[in-house]
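[User] I wish I could look at a protein chain and see how it folds. I have put the entry right below:
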Amino acid sequence: MSLSVPRANVYDIRSLKKIPQFKYFLDTNILKFVFAKTIANTRTYQSTHYPTFFKSLLLQKVLRFTYTQNLLELFAVIDKAETELKGLNLKEYRFNNLE
């Protein structure tokens, strides 16, 4: 007996002219390249294509979703990157920036 596994449609976001009308779940990586560009590796294709894809979703009024856990993970990634940029450990950074 074989199980049928649903197949996902795979699209190359670099070449989409019109976004298919699906519900899109935005993971932490997409959110990082859209909202935290200063800590994302800017030499990767994601730094160009993820923000463009996100903007297309907005312009075409396509439904977008994310999960609270993704936002928490994004905030943790931003927090960690900012402390490393300032040369502090996380406890020092939080203590010194309570204002």
About this structure: The helical segments are 28-35, 46-59, 68-85, 90-96. The longest helix spans residues 68-85.
